[in-house]
Sequence to fold (410 residues):
Amino acid sequence: MKTLLISGFGTSINVDKRKLIITNRLKDTRLEFYPHKINHDGIIIDGHTGNITFEAMRWLMKHNINLTLLNWDGQLLANVMPEHPKSGKLRIKQYQRYLDSESRFEIALKIIQTKVEHSLNLLEELSRFYESVDIISIRKSVEKEDLFLLNIMKNSENQDISKSIKQLMTYEGRIAGIHLENLTAIFNQLNPEFNFTGRKNKVSSRNYNASDEINALLNYGYAILESEIRKAINAIGLDYSIGFLHEINPSRTPLVYDVQELFRWLIDVSVIQLLEERKIKKSDFIITENYHTRLGENVAKLFIEKINSNFNAKYNYKNGKNYSYQIILQDNLQQLGNFIVGKKKEFDFVIPKMKLNRNDNLELRDKILNMTQDERKRLGINKSTLWHIKKNLSEEKTTKIYEKILLKIQ
Fold:
């Protein structure tokens, strides 16, 4: 995943002499991409005025580049995607799996179990750096909820599928509450000025019209995630109007929402990483006349960089080889497609757990970043060593702080 953000007023996208040209007359900027030499796989347009020619859209589709349009509030407005071969047999089988209560419950259950597994993994990773995340207490709470899940699984064959799905969603909601409670403490520790209290507000339980900076970031990130999942589903040929966990509703894409549940934690950790850099503040956000909050251009670019970095992180996936989460997403959807048409008798979502490769915590980071030369000399830390550690920490790069230095600082 390597997404290019096009933001601001006065943007123009066209083709001139085979090259894709992106200009902004107000900012006096110009980007040029030669055919088959563009290193982006997606373009996000986050702006209210500008233009794109038919030829530019054709150029993007020929280069398999997903075009995403975001609304003023960071919500996904539209996706323009290259045409992919569609399998009528695959879609028929998908409808049949949905109508078969046993198959639908099996897939829905695997979605929920995978989401919970990765939500807990994120909290466990964060507990190594944040004292507010009490992983032992969290595990005990989840164990209690798992008893409810076991009861759902036990009764699924003897009750209506809609009731079983509703119970699964109740279980997921309880775990999500535990997850959000811990994230809320972290968000407010990192930036109390943003005053994050949760996802719900008086208008919407999902806080689409964000009233604070954290919700604006989450909305924006989930919209980018939705765009990536739409693209992956489109490439496989599945019908995203037919999901297994989320119910069918007019103008909805339940299969997209299903798959989103598997990767939401990637957006959550991206928000945390952005806040940890301490580079953003209230004035970097835009407040509308209705007091809704949206991302300014600089924040959007920094945030997209974080999301790109996390999606491109490689983990051991198959045959001892490392793959990015973007490839892993695509392969999991392909395996789901194979299961739906009967090429595979069994199916599991296989997503490697993320690992935060750091041995620091926030207090230690602050001590290092604010360390003076006099303190360095007193502790006996090499000048160049401290410089490299500070550089990596400030750029949010993976860094290892050697035990000798840890002992001196602590």
In short: The mean pLDDT is 87. The CA atoms of residues 89 and 272 lie 43 Å apart.
